[in-house]
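Training component of the fellowship. As part of building independent skills, the fellow (R.M.) carried out the full modelling exercise for a liganded target. The chosen ligand was nicotinamide-adenine-dinucleotide. The inputs are recorded below so that the supervisory panel can assess the work.
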Amino acid sequence: MNVLVYDAHSYDRQFLDAANQGRHTFDYTTSQLDLQTATLAQGHAAVCCFVNDDASAPVLERLAGLGVRCIVLRCTGFNNVDLEAAKKLGITVMRVAFYSPYAVAEHAVALLQTLNRRTHRAYNRTREFNFRLGGLLGRDIHGSTVGVVGTGKIGVAFASIMKGFGCTLLGYDAAENPACLALGMTYRTLDALLPEADIVSLHVPLLPTTRHLINAKTLSLMKPGAFLINTSRGGLVDTEAVIEALRQERLGGVGLDVYEEEDGLFFQDLSDRMVGDDVLARLMMFPNVLITGHQAFFTQEAVTTIAETTLQNLDDFAAGRGNDNVLTR
Ligand code: NAD
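Fellow's submitted model of the complex:
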């Protein structure tokens, strides 16, 4: 099958080619999918997309008109795809429902501990032979209460690491996860979890019901000095409200791997350009904010599984087989 890979970086090519072994013909474009770049899909039965590709209804209509019958997402989240429109147009959408949840959970812990122990500042200081400790004071994570918002695959991996640190685990989810209960987690409503947690880590998907789950009201419920970590999707957090809470020194630190307006910014080198995003610029001004560019998934193991699963999805689609990764067909 001819497959056009959108938003392709060198590592996408490396891992997809290695997994492909000549089964399908891949063409790669660095362009993200949108209404204009959809025309590049001419002559391809399938397209392969990532988190910030635009698969809204008008784009899907254009793809369908060009003969595209399948979209394989090389990610778990699918908030950027209009599934209803895809179904109406007869486009099969498949994702990578499962790949190393440890990659994302471990990155959430990395954000937390970098913020807490200021290792990013220490790294810069010691390279200049500045070994003073002022400004590097952290706290023990042992004995803290951790609020895990979303206790699915990544949430339970995160909870299990935090249990190892010696934390008390609180959870918020639409459904209780037996694996979390086995770790000793106690479930709460979000409003009851937030005032108790020293650390809040977000692991729910972005849905209309979870958009701006962290907003001025929920931020006001958080324990003063708490850490907020978001490795899920930027839209879970009202960034302006977070900036206000930071300005009022109500949060201990904010670690973000995702940002509401990351589309057009993340996954690119913009270091020699003016970036006109004032919200991001204001966020970066706070010394207790740490941002990474949607890299939580980016481990050898996770990227290998993403590539292999994407190939399996293409094989199954070509053979007319369904599998657990099908979102709509
Ligand atoms: P999952 O489906 O295993 O878990 C999600 C959990 O959220 C489930 O337990 C579900 O019951 C709960 N949930 C859903 N809607 C809810 C609601 N309205 N209220 C309360 N709970 C709700 O998903 P996962 O594999 O753990 O992934 C979680 C998210 O992490 C993904 O949706 C994706 O957005 C994000 N993610 C980010 C990266 C990254 O690189 N930063 C990588 C992979 C996934």
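The panel noted the following from the submitted structure. The mean pLDDT is 97. Residues 76-77, 101, 104, 150-155, 173-175, 203-207, 209-210, 231-233, 257-258, 294, 296-297 surround nicotinamide-adenine-dinucleotide (CB under 6 Å).
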